[in-house]
Amino acid sequence: xxxxxxxxxxxxxxxxxxxxxxxxxxxxxxxxxxxxxxxxxxxxxxxxxxxxxxxxxxxxxxxxxxxxxxxxxxxxxxxxxxxxxxxxxxxxxxxxxxxxxxxxxxxxxxxxxxxxxxxxxxxxxxxxxxxxxxxxxxxxxxxxxxxxxxxxxxxxxxxxxxxxxxxxxxxxxxxxxxxxxxxxxxxxxxxxxxxxxxxxxxxxxxxxxxxxxxxxxxxxxxxxxxxxxxxxxxxxxxxxxxxxxxxxxxxxxxxxxxxxxxxxxxxxxxxxxxxxxxxxxxxxxxxxxxxxxxxxxxxxxxxxxxxxxxxxxxxxxxxxxxxxxxxxxxxxxxxxxxxxxxxxxxxxxxxxxxxxxxxxxxxxxxxxxxxxxxxxxxxxxxxxxxxxxxxxxxxxxxxxxxxxxxxxxxxxxxxxxxxxxxxxxxxxxxxxxxxxxxxxxxxxxxxxxxxxxxxxxxxxxxxxxxxxxxxxxxxxxxxxxxxxxxxxxxxxxxxxxxxxxxxxxxxxxxxxxxxxxxxxxxxxxxxxxxxxxxxxxxxxxxxxxxxxxx
Length: 550
Fold this sequence. Notes:
Layout: E1 2-6, E2 9-13, H1 19-25, E3 49-56, E4 62-65, E5 70-71, E6 82-84, H2 88-102, H3 119-127, E7 143-145, E8 150-153, H4 162-170, E9 176-179, E10 186-189, H5 202-206, E11 212-214, E12 227-232, E13 241-247, E14 250-256, H6 269-273, E15 288-289, H7 300-320, E16 325-329, H8 335-348, E17 353-356, E18 366-367, E19 373-374, H9 382-393, H10 400-408, E20 413-417, H11 427-433, E21 438-442, E22 454-457, E23 466-469, E24 475-478, H12 491-503, H13 512-519
């Protein structure tokens, strides 16, 4: 295999890669701004220039210098090549580039949202001069509103053009351009256009400095206070990999997590901003029981005890009366949630009717020129829920319309789960439920809330761990980002406590890894034990294994 040496480190490589990409792949640092692996390499920032020697076949293979510094982002790796980014020439260039970039850059790090994750800050410290020799006045550039999600602070821009190339090569929408010349260069939108495509906010992640900023995150939190948890898209069926960034139980932003086979480096604006229902003011946070006065905060334990007891009583009474128990499992739930809920329901009624909640579909899926696909199916785990229910029940669950028809017939009790970002109940389903005893395990109010016998507040996907199966049948596990808000519990824990109440024993603590191992012994669910774990950590936080006894 071909080899080259970067700053004394010998590296093997496959032909076709560039020197900079090889360094990135092997964990060797070469400073760079304009280069991004998903796009073309314009070689315009010049900080990645290196001194390169390589064998000259015309001179008996003797090592010869290329005679000048060359951009590693566009120089193909060659066998026997020796690359120096720490030679006197290369270091002098890095200092010169940093000095040039900082000439007109404002010294506003204390108020910049990028502070703490800024490559300009980092490289200034690592490769800069330490002081400025510039005595003249800095150029002042305007702030610009580029679209619904993105602000541009032009005077911070270093003209790496990542954002421009993104809109041309990845989305194909080409809203952004470079205008002006020399030190007056600016990024701008074309007249009459706004940066408003479905992936627009990815330019914020691409920007290596604080020029492109997220309106939603602006001045909300210092990044060094944020904790980062790997997770999966819980709003659509794409299975996009994400980071959830949070602090003290509050989510502040969601960012893409690289997965070359699923979402590359990108996520949709729909996912980036669609998690807000987690902190909705009208979220259920306390159990309620029809006929009981609303419970106070200091009655949380009593509320859960009464709610759980009443749930088992209503469902059991229906079955003892010769009627059927109907359970609607939402496609927003994890495989583990579906498994435990189904186990509990089958304990109540071995002949229970199971259905899958509505799977919203909006238009057609859309693939961009860069290869990223927006999924039109707006539920993360319909396939996983069907897989689990089919394995446990021996037959496929009813789809939502079929389930509605079954409820319109004769059932003695209905249990619904939701966890959708907005109201999901159709008029037909509400009419079908009618006066049938109803238990809701949900997050947000809907048309059935007023008539429900019991409402148990559940956790969103960001407040629990579990597994989703995406539109391609790929099983991926995710970790809990924040603790459940107020007095909510995840559906798996609710089901385990309902089962324990039937048995008169102390409830088990929900353990996602243990549940997946248990599910693997069920025919048809073996693959769940091998679900992909987040690369950063496959271990659960201790808080995931705590039973909060309110």
